[in-house]
Design brief:
mainly alpha, 7 helices, 3-stranded antiparallel sheet, about 180 residues, 3 strands
Length: about 180
Protein backbone atom coordinates (compact mmCIF):
# COMPACT_ATOMS: atom_id res chain seq x y z
CA UNK A 1 0.00 0.00 0.00
CA UNK A 2 1.29 3.44 -0.95
CA UNK A 3 1.76 5.82 1.96
CA UNK A 4 -1.47 7.85 2.19
CA UNK A 5 -1.34 11.62 2.38
CA UNK A 6 -3.10 12.23 5.68
CA UNK A 7 -3.27 15.26 7.93
CA UNK A 8 -1.56 14.74 11.29
CA UNK A 9 -4.86 14.35 13.18
CA UNK A 10 -5.83 11.43 10.93
CA UNK A 11 -2.42 9.81 11.35
CA UNK A 12 -2.77 10.00 15.12
CA UNK A 13 -6.31 8.57 15.08
CA UNK A 14 -5.20 5.80 12.71
CA UNK A 15 -2.18 4.97 14.89
CA UNK A 16 -4.37 4.78 18.01
CA UNK A 17 -6.91 2.51 16.30
CA UNK A 18 -4.02 0.40 14.94
CA UNK A 19 -2.92 -0.25 18.53
CA UNK A 20 -6.20 -2.01 19.27
CA UNK A 21 -9.79 -1.84 18.04
CA UNK A 22 -11.47 1.18 19.57
CA UNK A 23 -14.39 3.56 19.33
CA UNK A 24 -14.26 7.28 18.69
CA UNK A 25 -15.07 8.23 22.26
CA UNK A 26 -12.02 6.32 23.57
CA UNK A 27 -9.75 7.90 20.95
CA UNK A 28 -11.16 11.35 21.76
CA UNK A 29 -10.43 10.73 25.46
CA UNK A 30 -6.74 10.21 24.60
CA UNK A 31 -6.56 13.32 22.43
CA UNK A 32 -8.56 15.64 24.71
CA UNK A 33 -6.87 18.68 26.25
CA UNK A 34 -4.56 17.54 29.02
CA UNK A 35 -4.89 13.83 28.13
CA UNK A 36 -1.97 11.57 27.21
CA UNK A 37 -1.81 12.66 23.57
CA UNK A 38 -3.90 15.82 23.85
CA UNK A 39 -1.47 17.39 26.28
CA UNK A 40 0.94 17.73 23.35
CA UNK A 41 -1.33 17.52 20.30
CA UNK A 42 -4.98 18.25 21.01
CA UNK A 43 -7.59 16.82 18.64
CA UNK A 44 -11.18 17.82 19.34
CA UNK A 45 -13.88 15.17 19.59
CA UNK A 46 -15.58 16.34 16.35
CA UNK A 47 -12.20 16.13 14.55
CA UNK A 48 -11.68 12.59 15.88
CA UNK A 49 -15.05 11.50 14.50
CA UNK A 50 -14.42 13.29 11.20
CA UNK A 51 -11.02 11.54 11.00
CA UNK A 52 -12.64 8.17 11.65
CA UNK A 53 -15.14 8.79 8.83
CA UNK A 54 -12.35 9.72 6.43
CA UNK A 55 -10.25 6.71 7.44
CA UNK A 56 -13.26 4.41 6.84
CA UNK A 57 -13.81 6.04 3.43
CA UNK A 58 -10.17 5.38 2.54
CA UNK A 59 -10.42 1.75 3.63
CA UNK A 60 -7.81 2.14 6.38
CA UNK A 61 -10.14 1.25 9.23
CA UNK A 62 -13.31 -0.76 9.28
CA UNK A 63 -16.20 -1.17 11.73
CA UNK A 64 -15.90 -4.45 13.64
CA UNK A 65 -18.71 -4.22 16.17
CA UNK A 66 -20.53 -2.02 18.61
CA UNK A 67 -20.37 -1.44 22.34
CA UNK A 68 -23.23 -0.39 24.61
CA UNK A 69 -22.83 3.04 26.14
CA UNK A 70 -24.01 4.27 29.52
CA UNK A 71 -24.53 7.66 27.91
CA UNK A 72 -26.12 7.82 24.50
CA UNK A 73 -26.22 5.44 21.55
CA UNK A 74 -24.04 2.41 20.94
CA UNK A 75 -20.42 3.13 20.16
CA UNK A 76 -19.10 1.73 16.89
CA UNK A 77 -15.79 -0.08 17.30
CA UNK A 78 -13.21 0.26 14.53
CA UNK A 79 -10.10 -1.72 13.70
CA UNK A 80 -7.24 -0.88 11.38
CA UNK A 81 -6.80 -3.07 8.34
CA UNK A 82 -3.65 -5.18 8.13
CA UNK A 83 -2.20 -2.93 5.43
CA UNK A 84 -3.05 0.17 7.50
CA UNK A 85 -1.13 -1.27 10.46
CA UNK A 86 1.88 -1.76 8.20
CA UNK A 87 1.46 1.78 6.87
CA UNK A 88 1.31 3.19 10.43
CA UNK A 89 4.46 1.29 11.40
CA UNK A 90 6.25 2.72 8.37
CA UNK A 91 5.01 6.26 9.11
CA UNK A 92 6.14 6.00 12.74
CA UNK A 93 9.67 5.10 11.63
CA UNK A 94 10.03 7.91 9.07
CA UNK A 95 11.70 11.17 10.08
CA UNK A 96 10.00 14.43 9.27
CA UNK A 97 11.53 16.24 6.32
CA UNK A 98 10.54 19.79 7.21
CA UNK A 99 11.89 21.58 10.25
CA UNK A 100 8.41 22.99 10.86
CA UNK A 101 7.08 19.44 11.42
CA UNK A 102 9.43 18.60 14.30
CA UNK A 103 7.20 20.24 16.90
CA UNK A 104 3.94 18.50 16.00
CA UNK A 105 4.56 15.46 13.82
CA UNK A 106 7.85 14.21 15.26
CA UNK A 107 6.72 14.66 18.86
CA UNK A 108 3.46 12.85 18.02
CA UNK A 109 5.38 9.96 16.49
CA UNK A 110 7.57 9.73 19.59
CA UNK A 111 4.50 9.74 21.87
CA UNK A 112 2.85 7.02 19.80
CA UNK A 113 6.03 4.92 19.78
CA UNK A 114 6.26 5.31 23.55
CA UNK A 115 2.66 4.06 23.91
CA UNK A 116 3.70 0.97 21.97
CA UNK A 117 6.78 0.45 24.16
CA UNK A 118 8.83 0.84 20.99
CA UNK A 119 12.20 2.48 21.43
CA UNK A 120 12.78 5.75 19.59
CA UNK A 121 16.44 5.07 18.68
CA UNK A 122 15.89 4.27 15.00
CA UNK A 123 13.63 7.27 14.42
CA UNK A 124 15.95 9.58 16.36
CA UNK A 125 18.96 8.38 14.35
CA UNK A 126 17.15 8.88 11.04
CA UNK A 127 15.88 12.29 12.16
CA UNK A 128 19.43 13.40 12.95
CA UNK A 129 20.44 12.63 9.35
CA UNK A 130 17.57 14.74 8.02
CA UNK A 131 18.46 17.60 10.38
CA UNK A 132 22.05 17.46 9.13
CA UNK A 133 20.77 17.84 5.55
CA UNK A 134 18.50 20.73 6.52
CA UNK A 135 21.34 22.46 8.35
CA UNK A 136 23.72 22.01 5.42
CA UNK A 137 21.17 23.57 3.07
CA UNK A 138 20.68 26.53 5.40
CA UNK A 139 24.37 27.07 6.02
CA UNK A 140 24.88 27.45 2.27
CA UNK A 141 22.43 30.37 2.36
CA UNK A 142 23.08 31.94 5.78
CA UNK A 143 25.51 34.62 4.55
CA UNK A 144 23.66 35.45 1.33
CA UNK A 145 21.19 38.23 0.83
CA UNK A 146 20.32 41.22 2.91
CA UNK A 147 20.25 41.59 6.69
CA UNK A 148 16.69 40.22 6.93
CA UNK A 149 17.47 37.10 4.88
CA UNK A 150 20.54 36.46 7.04
CA UNK A 151 18.48 36.95 10.21
CA UNK A 152 15.83 34.50 9.00
CA UNK A 153 18.45 31.83 8.27
CA UNK A 154 20.05 32.46 11.67
CA UNK A 155 16.61 31.93 13.23
CA UNK A 156 16.06 28.71 11.28
CA UNK A 157 19.51 27.43 12.21
CA UNK A 158 18.64 28.02 15.85
CA UNK A 159 15.55 25.85 15.29
CA UNK A 160 17.81 23.10 13.93
CA UNK A 161 19.97 23.36 17.07
CA UNK A 162 16.86 23.24 19.27
CA UNK A 163 15.60 20.17 17.40
CA UNK A 164 18.99 18.51 17.96
CA UNK A 165 18.86 19.28 21.70
CA UNK A 166 15.36 17.79 21.76
CA UNK A 167 16.62 14.61 20.06
CA UNK A 168 19.54 14.47 22.52
CA UNK A 169 17.07 14.61 25.42
CA UNK A 170 14.90 11.88 23.87
CA UNK A 171 17.96 9.72 23.25
CA UNK A 172 19.30 10.15 26.79
CA UNK A 173 15.94 9.48 28.45
CA UNK A 174 15.27 6.46 26.22
CA UNK A 175 18.70 5.04 27.11
CA UNK A 176 18.00 5.55 30.82
CA UNK A 177 14.60 3.86 30.53
CA UNK A 178 16.11 0.93 28.63
CA UNK A 179 18.83 0.55 31.26
CA UNK A 180 16.22 0.46 34.07
CA UNK A 181 14.28 -2.36 32.40
CA UNK A 182 17.32 -4.58 31.87
Amino acid sequence: MEQPDLPLAEWIVLALVAERPSHGFAVAALTAEGAEIGEFWYISRPMVYRSISRLVERGLITPVGAEESDRGPQRMIYAATRSAKTTVNRWLSEPVTKLFDVRAELTSKLLLLHRRDAGPARLVERQRVVLDEIEESMRAKEHAGNYLTRAIYAWRLEHVRAARRFLDAVDVDATRSAAKTV
